[in-house]
Write a structure and sequence with these properties.
The complex is a heterodimer of chains A (460) and B (349). With 460 residues, chain A is mainly alpha-helical. Chain A has helices at 3-42, 45-78, 81-115, 122-151, 170-175, 177-208, 212-247, 249-255, 290-296, 306-317, 326-355, 363-371, 374-389, 412-442, and strands at 156-158, 165-167, 267-272, 282-287, 394-396, 400-401. The longest helix of chain B has 34 residues, at 2-35. The chains are: A mainly alpha (460), B mainly alpha (349). At the A-B interface, helix 2, helix 3 and helix 14 of A face helix 2, helix 3, helix 4, helix 5 and helix 12 of B.
Chain lengths: 460, 349
Amino acid sequence: MSQLDLARLQFAMTSIYHFLFVPVTIGLSFLTALLQTAWHRTDRPEFLRLTRFFGTLLVINIAVGVVTGLVQEFQFGMDWSGYSRTVGDVFGAPLAMEGLGAFFLESTFLGLWLFGWDKLPKRVHLGTIWAVAVGGALSAAFIMAANSWMQHPVGYTINSSTGRPQLNDVWALFTNPVFLRGYLHVLLASLVTGAMVMLAVSAWQLRKGADTEVFRLSARLSLVVLVPALLFAMLVGSELGVTEGKYQPMKIAGAEAQWETCQPCSFSVFQVGGGNNDQTPTKIIAIPHLLSLLATNHWNGQVLGLNAVQSQYQQRYGPGEYVPDIFIQYWSMRVMAYLATVALLVGLWGLWLLRRKRLAESPWFLRVAVWAVVLPFLINTAGWLLTENGRQPWIVQGIQLTRNGVSPSVSTTTVAISILVFFLLYAALAVVAAVLMTRYARKDAAEAPSDDQPVPAVTY
Amino acid sequence: MALAVFWFILIAVLWTGFFVLEGFDLGVGMLHAVLVRDEPGRRAVINTIGPLWDGNEVWLITAAAAMFAAFPAWYATLLSGLYLAVVLLLVGLIIRGVSFEFRGKIDSVRWRRTWDVLLTAGSLIVPLVIGIALGDLLHGVPIGSDQEFAGNFADLFTGYGVFTGITLVVLCVLHGATFIALKTTGGVRRRAGLLARRAAPVAGLVVLAFVTWTHSTAGRGILINLAELAAVVAVFAAAWLIATGHEGWAFAATTLAMATTVVSIFVELYPRVMVSSTNSAFDLTVHNTASGDYALKVMTVVAIVLLPVVLAYQSWTYHVFRLRLTAEHFQGPEGPGGSGASVAPQPEA
């Protein structure tokens, strides 16, 4: 493998890993804030116990999310110095704003929340968990603004003497249509992830039969958040597809492995074959008009085929291969959509049981809900593969090719060493985090603080 | 170009802020197991920085992001040039960051010992590697005419760079010991005070050697700069204040010593941001690495609005957790929700 391949592999590995923890953090912080608000309003001890129980799962996730986020930030300079040097003027700004405007907020108030139980007035303490939640959501906003710029660059001019993009309208970064929809999509996906984690843990506890009156409440909260969030996420996701299709036609054509321009276009449920060297895969169950609808919002919309976009790009940017990996594109789109549908069915089933007040007594649902915890992680990963692979071979669409973004001074061996180091370290972290999370999630709620005790400080 | 100068100063302030704040919690990390043998004592020591370290570390994240945004070529050359050192730094930050959270989650002696070792190692690696990197900025590493690093891993270990790393480690230890003495009671406080008393004269000599070397490396004549002078005065003042039992003032002095030591590097560096050992014509400077004026203007507005807010709530955090901790309050079972782990801090002595 070349230095470019290894640098890409490293970025994919560390990003996917980082993004396993980020959505849980964002989602669970809002849900924990809601639980604490409920405690504040009702004074019911069950809500306090739930706040502290899920708060602990939250901080385990934050710990891993924060340290792996560090790797992401430094990697731009380590592996992608060609990229950093070229686009730092535009791309660096939202990153610096993330530090000043979001990360300080999240970290400082997390400390206040964790250690401030017996030191802050109740209301102020409630405010700190909301500050953590808002900080996490803001942090994602700045990162998504930066990422959306790579998908659809706006608000810049090319400096004639350096040939590099220069920021000339910061507001454009935050009104970028790809950003607005992409960010909303990520926020909703995070709520879905947090809710499914909460649902799975509650289901586990209900199955065990311990503290049903406590975990019934969290199961209810998670389902009430899950289903609407998932529906909106799907809606916004399909809007995002249309937006991206407009600016990155390769991405959408690749998601259907559509080589020839079509109108109207059908969506295949499944295909056999496919890939970049197989332009005539066997499509199974083609649903008429659906691709037109998804890609253009019109019943009879035209979708440009991969070959058409390829020749357009060759005219504009010179000879080269501009088609992304079609196998990844086609299947990541389907994994995301299909598993989201499965998650929705689980959620609806739960809501139905909830209405009939039989949630805690349905062993089948509880069993499924525990296993369903893997769904959001697979969905989120597939979503990022779809959006980032669909941008290839560009690192910034139309401005810089990925191969021109790597660090010229770094050797293949150096990148290989660092991949090995991070792989081993991340694997160890995954094992420890998983062990701690499951240990804690299975813990008897009886070990949670009881009512007659004052709230103890959370300490290390 | 005035804005580029402003951002150079701001980045120097962010690095200084990082070492002043995270400096003591790195010191606490290095010392917690060395200083105290029993579990309640260790927990008391770790809990002195429990609510603070995460917010302190953001100074590093923001410093790096600010370099990326304001001086992209500086960020690109530095991180790609120091690649393997940065990997080591990240490993240090990762094992340290998770050890706080993981350490108390399983009630087993072996488990806690493991995380104690990782917390100590991580806390040592971080200031050492960043110190080497900061020293290399001034001493110079091979950089070609294309602003790219043109050396290898061994080129990073310049004598001055390594000594900068050692200086910062020593200052972190002193800063951390002073902080523990200020924030605890009883035996832990005594031991920390004793260690600080012994470490301070050593730190004084190290800092004296460091500023002399810094000044001769920069080669700007005999006129000593104020930061260098202040660093030496502050560290010896700290030694005297600790010996006379003024814990609060001693901590103020180690803060000043840390700040001026870091500042002295940046003062000697300006207007360069990274010196080329190949040819001074290839030096990276404030001017040839800065972002465009518009980007700098936007970020200046953001920084001027947000930095005071950040300082305000971080100061408030320090106010909320201002009381001393004592080992007796960590006798019970531990971990979140662990009953009996309630902390009732003592009023400040």
